[in-house]
Amino acid sequence: MTSDVHEKTTGKETTETRIRKGRGPLAFNVMRKIAMTVFKQDQTKRASIVAKKKMAGLDDEYRSTLLESGIKMR
Length: 74
Prior knowledge:
4 helices
């Protein structure tokens, strides 16, 4: 019953996500680990990782700073 409700609200089934098909799980896991490393190494803001994620979602300049620092990690 709840899956029917979810399907009606989103328009697709939960099993159709690309994250769970083929190499998707591995790719997303690697991307998550890279993102978490960038958040952990960030010294520009003193906040929890949860707060940093929220700030990155709302503030374009902060997100740019994170992406630039992630590129310099190599």
